[in-house]
Amino acid sequence: MPARDEYIAAIDIGTTKVCTFIGSVKKNNTIEIKGYGSSECKGIKKGLVVDINESIKSILASIGAAEKSTSMFIDSAYIGVTGKHISFLNNWTEINISSPGKIVRKSDVDRLIGLANKINISSEHYVIHTLIKQFALGEEKDIADPVGLSTDKLAVELLIIYGSIIPIRNIINSIKAANIEIEDIMLEALASGEAVLTPEEKESGVIVMDIGGGTTDVAIYRNRKMIFTYCLPVGGDLVTNDISIGLNIPFAKAEEIKKKFANVDINFYETLNRINMDDIMLDKNRATLNIRLYSIVNDRLKELLNLVKEKIEAYGFIHSIPCGLVITGGTANLKGIAALAENVFNMPARIGTSLDVEGPSEVVGNPIYATAIGILKYANQIRNFLDLGQFDGRRQKSKGFAARFREFIMRILRND
Ligand SMILES: Nc1ncnc2c1ncn2[C@@H]1O[C@H](COP(=O)(O)OP(=O)(O)OP(=O)(O)O)[C@@H](O)[C@H]1O
Ligand SMILES: [Mg+2]
Q1: Which of 150, 228, 236, 284 has a CA-to-CA distance to 107 between 20 and 30 Å?
Q2: Ligand 2 centroid distance, CA of 217 (Å)
Q3: Are residues 10 and 376 in contact, defined by beta-carbon separation less than 8 angstroms?
């Protein structure tokens, strides 16, 4: 790309599509989308490479389309990762404060974070993010910034997000085979949150749910910090599959029907018989068809939402989410999904599209592109040392990070 420093590329490798976005960093440090390319993806399922040649083909096609749309050449990119192999742990690290008056200095915080980042994780795993959840002064928790406060003991709790090396290696190998340098990899749930959440939502407490084709990526924020993440290996394709089986029609037809006619808003049920599905040309009674479509889609989505809810409940987070749910990803386009989610979770829900980015409205306004746009936004913040809202220990102020990341990529390529 020309002027490397001014342009950023992001690649979102999803179950149904790979998309490559090129953004430029504007003077006020926001991103403007210059162009993008999207290509159908057959080689990746639920964040896992299942066919390397197909994956490479889709990646190359999406990069080619993005390059064509901008007349730029991409040689490096930030990559999103997801999958049920991704997990997290909370880790507390503590140090004694021995300065005069026991006042915490900036250097104490740096020392503590340095120590906390030395977390031992098995060689089968790779740490993707180390995010600060909170500091504690002795027994007093929930401290946002301890500098200047007095204490004997200073502790920090990190949210360490990690994934299995093998699936990450397969993604890296696919990208490298497409001749792209990897700048960094990041969690897709975090990227989607970055794209669609307002600072107020992150501050008060919010659940972001990216429902794609094969996965549902979840993140919870409170006090501006991500405190939980989860990947359910189920997405909108399961709904299509059920329509296909339930109505005995091919998957592609079921997908078309879902996008055009499915609506899970309970109020919509009342009007079902008036919907005209004639142009679908199915040899079935129209009213029966509508009602069956409603119940198939409604049942499947309810089940998916309940699975997410149960997981969040199991971690005890369900009662402190004043801003409710923000739903994004391609399945957020399904009509009535926000109303259904409000019902299941018993909290407000809205559809999340990308905020504070410039670009064509059909892209910025479509939740299907939230992950890719979020990767661009997060990458811009890392590169320019902007406030991430949450310290990401693997990156910010960690001078050796770039070198260590290159070493990790080299190891992957050598197959160590
Ligand atoms: N208008 C629409 N109505 C209903 N569903 C839609 C609509 N548009 C897209 N979808 C669904 O969105 C899903 C694809 O979403 P998305 O592109 O976010 O997934 P992905 O990133 O490829 O996959 P994943 O993130 O799960 O690996 C598909 O199941 C598709 O049917
Ligand atoms: Mg996705």
Answers
A1: 228
A2: 8
A3: yes
Measured between alpha carbons, how far is 128 from 394 in angstroms, rounded to an integer? 8
Strands 206-211 vs 216-222: parallel, antiparallel or unpaired:
antiparallel
Q: How many angstroms is it from 47 CA to the middle of ligand 2?
A: 8
Name the amino acid, one letter, at 70: T
Interval 201-252: pLDDT, tens: 999 999 999 999 999 999 999 988 899 999 999 999 999 999 999 988 999 9
Backbone angles phi, psi at 178, to 5 degrees: -90, 10
How many angstroms does the Cα of residue 20 sit away from the middle of ligand 2?
12
Q: In this structure, what DSSP letter does residue 183 have?
A: E
| Domains recognised in the chain with CATH numbers | 87-163 (3.30.1490.110), 198-354 (3.30.420.40)
Give the model's pLDDT for residue 1. 42
For residue 368, the ligand 1 atom closest to its alpha carbon is: 18
Rounded to 5 degrees, what are φ and ψ at 121? -130, 150
Distances (CA, A) of 131 to 102, 123, 134, 226, 403: 26, 20, 9, 8, 20
Task: Read off the pLDDT of residues 139-148 as tens digits, 9 standing for 90 and up.
Answer: 999 888 899 9
Is the CB of residue 56 less than 8 Å from the CB of residue 178? yes
- What is the DSSP annotation of 249-290? --HHHHHHHHHHH-B--HHHHTTGGG---GGG--SS-HHHHH
Query: What one-character-per-residue DSSP string does 335-379 give?
Result: BTHHHHHHHHHTS-EEE----SEES-HHHHT-GGGHHHHHHHHHH
Residues with CB under 5 A from ligand 2 (ion): 14, 212, 371
Beta bridge partners of 80: 186
Alpha-carbon distance 109 to 308, whole Å? 35
16 CA → ligand 1 middle, Å: 7
Q: Which atom of ligand 1 is nearest to the CA of 215?
A: 26
Nearest protein CA to atom 25 of ligand 1, as residue: 212
Q: Are 287 and 276 in contact (CB under 8 A)?
A: no
- With a CB cutoff of 8 Å and minimum separation 6, the contacts of 248 are none
The closest of 221, 14, 189 to 86, measured between CA atoms, is: 189
Spatial CA neighbour of 77 closest among 364, 383, 407: 383
Q: In a 3-state reduction of DSSP, which class is residue 44?
A: strand
